[in-house]
Design goal:
Number of helices: 9
Number of strands: 9
Order of helices and strands: EHHHHHEHEEEEHEEHEH
Number of domains: 2
Radius of gyration: 18 Å
Mean pLDDT: 90
Strand content: 15-25%
CATH architecture of the largest domain: 3-Layer(aba) Sandwich
CATH class of the largest domain: Alpha Beta
Largest sheet: 6 strands, parallel
Shape: elongated
Distance between the termini: 11 Å
Length: about 230
Amino acid sequence: MKKIVVLTGAGVSAESGIATFRDSNGLWENHRVEDVASPEGFARNPELVLNFYNARRAQLKTVKPNLGHHLIAELEKDYDVTVVTQNVDDLHERAGSSNIIHLHGELRKVRSVDGFEDPIPWTEDLHLGDLNDEGRQLRPHIVWFGEQVPRMDMAADVVSRADLIIIVGTSMQVYPAAGLVSYAPPHIPVIYIDPNPTINDALARRDITTIVKGGGEGMAEAVELIPGLL
């Protein structure tokens, strides 16, 4: 069975009503990145950080997967599909995708302040004083700026064995995720879906099909193209 790797970012979830961090009206607008998405920010004001992610987690209860999520999930009927996502929401899971690598963590999980391993499912608010079994404070299971991306090696390995890559909802400008395409075999086709595509150096050297549309419409077009590319 042919292997497809789908690289997704905030643009996929934007169509479900989840604001993207980098848009003009994105989540960062009223918060400095350093305050809500860094270890230093958490050390300075943990309550602010916990409340920020509590709001993000609560929002997940009000949104649903969109057409793009569902079309990605439906690819599993005919292909061996792995989704490598920069998103921290659970919309891919809720749409039915079964093999997902979350590069930047997951909103509906928490973990000890001491390490990345053994995250705990968590759907409600997280507060100061919420501890793990060893008595350590819990924090969002999110990779903050300045922290290592522990699943990058796993993602790179999956990309290295792909027969086709689909990029949707991400500008591929933010590293280390932007470098993932470099691990793909040089001859394989790439479908790049973006309403405002920006071709980075890694993509410029590829057999690339660009679809200038949003995630849902773009995935619908991609589904039609896939058989001719594999």
